[in-house]
Amino acid sequence: MVNYLITGGAGFIGSNLAAEVVKRGGKVSLVDDLSMGKEENIIHLNKKRVTFYKKSITDHDFMTNLLIKEHFDYIILLGAVASVANSVRMPYETHEVNQEANINILETIRKFGLNVKKLLFASSAAVYGNNPQQPKKEGSAIEPGTPYAIDKFASERYALTYGELYQIPTVATRFFNVYGPSKIQIRRIQVFCQSSLTA
Ligand SMILES: NC(=O)c1ccc[n+]([C@@H]2O[C@H](COP(=O)([O-])OP(=O)(O)OC[C@H]3O[C@@H](n4cnc5c(N)ncnc54)[C@H](O)[C@@H]3O)[C@@H](O)[C@H]2O)c1
């Protein structure tokens, strides 16, 4: 069975991705400290296929042991202080989560020669800062103007450079505004509509 790790797995994107992994027959470990994510986002997922760790990705010993023990095929790095405003309020704590924790994961893969099929790092359109060019392209000028954007850009470079230097298959994607209903929100709306109709 294909084995996935999703950091930030109880968040918006991570929980939807976990549901998709399960739907496609894979199994997945989710690491999330629930600072922003919610257990209710993942509670409905098949427990035989989903293992949830309420842990911080800044716990390097925990992450290293998990990576060595589980032999993940695919690693999706979504765990982050995902708010630009919070990164401005707490730049160093953001850096520990948004950059150092990701380097620790890359370094563990390198040091222990872990056989990962692909590691994906979730970067952000925030790296373009106030650059007015539209539409943005991969080659557009980078003007990271917040701790969030700086760490996203550095981490994507780390992911790609570890790929080139140490032959680890990595990719970085710059998400723009990801939106849409989560399953839990859809269920809440359904319950609300049902109770409104019967009231
Ligand atoms: N949603 C968007 O529009 C968007 C745009 C650009 C980039 N991104 C990036 O995509 C990723 C997922 O975004 P999202 O919208 O699902 O955000 P989200 O806040 O819902 O998910 C991020 C998750 O990371 C978790 N997290 C934070 N610190 C952690 C830590 N120390 N250890 C473990 N988990 C921790 C949070 O609890 C949360 O569940 C993030 O890296 C974000 O920066 C999102």
Model description:
Helix 1 links the parallel strand 1 (3-7) and strand 2 (27-31). The chain has a 6-stranded parallel sheet, with helices on both faces. It has 6 helices and 6 strands, in the order E-H-E-E-H-E-H-H-E-H-E-H. The chain is globular. It is an alpha/beta fold and 199 residues long. It has a single domain (3-197), classed as 3-Layer(aba) Sandwich (Rossmann fold), CATH 3.40.50. Residues 195-199 have low confidence and may be disordered. Helices cover 43% and strands 16% of the residues. Helix 2 (60-70) runs parallel beside helix 4 and helix 4 (91-111) packs parallel to helix 5 (147-166). The structure holds nicotinamide-adenine-dinucleotide.
Q: Which key phrases capture this entry?
A:
6-stranded parallel sheet, 16% strand, 199 residues, alpha/beta, globular, Rossmann fold, binds nicotinamide-adenine-dinucleotide
Largest sheet: 6 strands, parallel
Radius of gyration: 18 Å
> Based on helices, strands and strand pairing, what is the structural class?
alpha/beta
CATH class: Alpha Beta
CATH architecture label: 3-Layer(aba) Sandwich
Report the total helices: 6
Strand and helix order? EHEEHEHHEHEH
Percent range for β-strand residues: 15-25%
**Strand line-up of the largest beta sheet:** 3-2-1-4-5-6
Low-confidence stretches: 195-199
CATH superfamily, by name, is NAD(P)-binding Rossmann-like Domain
Ligands: nicotinamide-adenine-dinucleotide
Layout of helices and strands:
Elements: E1 3-7, H1 12-23, E2 27-31, E3 50-53, H2 60-70, E4 74-77, H3 84-89, H4 91-111, E5 118-124, H5 147-166, E6 170-175, H6 183-198
Parallel strand pairs: 1-2, 1-4, 2-3, 4-5, 5-6
Helix pairs in contact: 2-4, 4-5
The chain binds nicotinamide-adenine-dinucleotide.
